[in-house]
Specification:
alpha+beta; FAD/NAD(P)-binding domain; 5-stranded parallel β-sheet; about 450 residues; binds flavin-adenine dinucleotide; 5-stranded antiparallel β-sheet; about 20% strand; globular; 15 helices
Length: about 450
Amino acid sequence: MRNPGKQMDVGIIGAGWAGLATAIELTLSGCKVTIYEAAKSIGGRARRIESGSMASQLPVLDNGQHLLIGAYTETQRLIEIVSPGMSAGGFLRVPLTLDYPDGILLKAFKLPAPLHLAAGILFANGFSLAEKLAAIGFIRHLQSQAFKPEAPASVAEAIANQPEKIRRYLWEPLCVAALNTPANQASYKVFARVLKDALTGSRYASDFMIPVCDLSGLFPEPASDWLKERGAIINTQQRIRTIKPGPNGWKTDCEVGEACHDVLVIATSAPQASSLLSKFPECAQIVSQIEALRYQPIVTVYVQYPVRLDLRTPLTGWIDPVPFFVFDLEATHRRKGFIAAVTSAEGPHLDWSDNRWLNEIHDRIEQSQGSLPRPRFIKRIAEKRATFSCTPDVVRPEQTTPCKNLFLVGDYVEGPYPSTLEGAVRSGVQCAKLVTQLS
Ligand SMILES: Cc1cc2nc3c(=O)[nH]c(=O)nc-3n(C[C@H](O)[C@H](O)[C@H](O)COP(=O)(O)OP(=O)(O)OC[C@H]3O[C@@H](n4cnc5c(N)ncnc54)[C@H](O)[C@@H]3O)c2cc1C
């Protein structure tokens, strides 16, 4: 039994954005926090992988280019706590813009939501009036259902009656960007929830937020400094091999030896959580829920031109042969000609070689920019299990487990958001509330 007057001691396994969010909230509530991270560096899937240098001409690279939106309010709140000013200064923030060089440009207006998007659609280039009215009608229909549709199940079914161009250039890319799941597999309910947060409330909620620094510098490293200043312990390169209940809480076993905590929070990715829980018969249902999860990839290809590019928006999209979006990292990272091409979810591009990627990207950039020298291929990062597939039938495990004082957090845990930074952070914030209620 824990002494009621004693500061609650919480162990957190994993220093991704979910684990760090949990740690910040628990520290604010007066708990003693110890984090165990298996990797050399913190940040999990959203971190810097190469530091770059002017001498090597190698830009800083992340483990995949990330995009946030204005509706990620909890992420911004925590960034601001650990690094005041960063929630504004850490991003290039632009109104929702869909820019396809093959003739379509849609930009949200400076009007209250959802008029900002309705006007953006109405005045977009490249759609007929009938197509625009159909798109606006779709939003109004969702609004009339308070963005809580009972049916249909998949996004593809929901948009089946929309004009083809609206489906391909508006709803399908937004669905894949938000859920990292193709429209024919994606949950309409979750998509509607993300649209609600992005389109109702403030017009800024649908803003695109592109980090202007690397992901580690945006949140994990300032969070680590902030936590350490407040007495938290962060052990890197410490993979927790086993966990077991002890007389006074939970025992963790790793390189630094055995430790005991009143409460344990598993903040690893889903497969790692499953392997830590698999020896507890009472967690069999959670383990089977995790094992039933399916995953979607994200491919990021970093490329650098020897000349400045003149992309008209920081994010430019192409639909064929597979949809991909190019981030203008010259605009965000001040590196001449530096871009990241991102393709979300599964598709034939998973088999493309580096050379094929280079050709596909170069062809498309030349379509909008005219003739250019060939770019330098820098790196392709293909994360096969970037996020879980957000399908209508997915059952996500709850944060509480049948084991006393053992909790789960992460982007895969039950919550309103799909597998995103905001989903991970919200799960950490919510878990911290549950933990502090124990005291
Ligand atoms: C390429 C790519 C692009 C993405 N793009 C976007 C985007 O644009 N926008 C967006 O919102 N989201 C995006 N995401 C999703 C986002 O990165 C994740 O949702 C989020 O980072 C998940 O955080 P997490 O803390 O839940 O898990 P993770 O980041 O997986 O963190 C888990 C941590 O636990 C550690 N760990 C595992 N096992 C152990 C153990 N036994 N002991 C100790 N430590 C352990 C791991 O090393 C890791 O650091 C993208 C993801 C990828 C991969």
